[in-house]
Design brief:
With 73 residues, the chain is α+β, with helices and mostly antiparallel strands. Helices cover 16% and strands 32% of the residues.
């Protein structure tokens, strides 16, 4: 299992199951950013920019333990 932190921004705070402060998630090994979106109740089309540890990332990027994933509308 991997532990990641998800932080939504803008309107994604109301569209997702995550508050503005963010939330820690346990994800299975081999998960991708797209899988994190499913866990927090968002669709690919709602997210325009993804930052993982402060760097732009694609939805198919594999997540690693302790990653911080920021989601922007």
């Amino acid at each position: 299992m991997l532990r990641v932190r998800v932080v939504p921004h803008g309107k994604l705070t109301t569209n997702s199951r995550v508050s503005r402060d963010g939330r820690d998630l346990n994800m299975p090994t081999g998960s991708r950013v797209r899988d994190v979106l499913v866990q927090v109740g968002l669709f690919d089309e709602e997210v325009r920019r993804v930052l993982v540890n402060g760097r732009r990332a694609r939805l198919d990027r594999a997540v690693r333990n302790n990653d911080v994933i920021e989601l922007h509308p």
